[in-house]
């Protein structure tokens, strides 16, 4: 795959040029965006995945849900349905997508919706009898038909967008100049002990605009693992062999975390949003104990025995959460 990406390097300028011209069209008003007079917060990135969008959406939900009626709006990647859908008790990872279904399972007091056409999705949400006060757009930074009132751009600590190339050789969906649209840039998956000197170095490399604010975040893993109907302390795994199943963009932080805890496990790594075949599910059903991510769990929980399938939750931790929280709440209040 790496060799193929290198061979495709001559295509990079073409992809870069097409996406750059598209952005110019929106920036100059040639292509039309729709803005709104209520809070619309977009969480996205420049790359194809693995920056921690879902934990960041969940952070915002926790921050705002007690004061405002919240709705999330996602594309619903790889879902079997079309058009606008609101999650309900008949929904599944197949019908609305794994990440929206994860939100729905965790937060019963919010509206979880999907629509590839974000303009249409926002319109449908605002037509509800109990319409949301705040809409959180999941992975919509490149969906420029919608002009979000507040844009949060994520970039991963060990793969900053300034070090990457455009598709197909690299992972960037658009040129690095697209970062200028962000109101806030968050460097995600940082070490908990990142120094002020390293933060300063990263800021210098990213060169944020004068109107942009930068934050840093890390990942926090739970001390418990959860199945459909039970929970156990993570230390339960100390003397147990298990299989780690991942179908996410970047499993390395989780793998490294479990290795640091000296657990004994095999790792079966699949592509992001992987749809498990019957053959794969039959093979997994033979495993004695499976630990997986929360996103993978919502795709596997109805297909594997509940007594052997557990997930390890994660949360995003903003290293200067007080300032970040105030930043977000101020936007919502003044919008």
Describe this structure in words.
With about 325 residues, the protein is α/β, with parallel strands linked by helices. The chain folds into two domains: about 170 residues, Rossmann fold, CATH 3.40.50; about 90 residues, Rossmann fold (3-Layer(aba) Sandwich). The protein is about 30% helix and about 20% strand. A nine-stranded mixed sheet has the order 3-4-2-5-1-6-7-8-15, with helices on both faces. It has a four-stranded parallel sheet with strand order 12-11-13-14. Strands 9-10 form a two-stranded antiparallel sheet. Helix 5 crosses helix 10. About 35% of the residues are buried.
Features of this protein?
Rossmann fold, 335 residues, alpha/beta, 15 strands, 11 helices
Say how many strands there are: 15
Number of domains in the coordinates?
Answer: 2
Name of the CATH architecture of the largest domain: 3-Layer(aba) Sandwich
> Main beta sheet, described?
9 strands, mixed
- Poorly predicted ranges (pLDDT <50, ≥5 residues)? none
Radius of gyration: 20 Å
Structural class comes to: alpha/beta
Quote the beta fraction.
15-25%
Helix tally equals 11
């Amino acid at each position: 795959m790496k060799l193929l990406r290198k061979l495709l390097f001559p295509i990079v300028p073409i992809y870069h040029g097409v996406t750059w011209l598209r952005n110019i069209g929106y920036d100059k008003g040639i292509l039309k965006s729709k803005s709104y007079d209520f809070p619309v917060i977009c969480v996205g990135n420049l790359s194809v995945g693995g920056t921690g969008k879902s934990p960041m959406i969940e952070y915002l939900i926790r921050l705002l849900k007690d004061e405002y009626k919240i709705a999330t709006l996602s594309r619903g990647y790889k879902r079997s349905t079309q058009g606008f859908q609101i999650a309900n008790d008949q929904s599944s990872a197949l019908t609305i997508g794994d990440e929206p279904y994860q939100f729905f399972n965790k937060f019963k007091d919010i509206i979880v919706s999907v629509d590839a056409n974000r303009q249409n999705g926002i319109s449908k949400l605002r037509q509800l009898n109990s319409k949301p006060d705040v809409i959180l757009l999941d992975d919509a930074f490149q969906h420029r038909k919608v002009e979000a009132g507040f844009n949060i751009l994520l970039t991963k600590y060990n793969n900053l967008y300034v070090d990457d190339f455009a598709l197909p050789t690299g992972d960037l969906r658009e040129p690095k100049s697209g970062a200028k649209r962000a109101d806030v840039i968050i460097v995600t998956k940082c070490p908990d002990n990142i120094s002020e000197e390293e933060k300063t170095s990263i800021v210098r490399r990213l060169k944020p605009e004068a109107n942009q604010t930068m934050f840093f975040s890390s990942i926090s893993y739970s001390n418990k693992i959860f199945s459909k109907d039970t929970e156990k302390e993570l230390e339960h795994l100390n003397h147990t062999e298990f299989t780690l199943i991942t179908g996410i963009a970047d499993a390395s932080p989780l793998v490294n975390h479990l290795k640091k805890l000296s657990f004994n496990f095999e790792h079966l790594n699949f592509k992001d949003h992987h749809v498990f075949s019957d053959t794969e599910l039959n093979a997994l059903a033979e495993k004695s104990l499976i630990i997986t991510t929360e996103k993978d769990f919502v795709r596997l929980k109805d297909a594997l025995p509940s007594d052997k399938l557990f997930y390890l939750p994660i949360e995003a931790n903003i290293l200067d959460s007080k300032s970040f929280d105030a930043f977000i709440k101020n936007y919502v209040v003044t919008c």
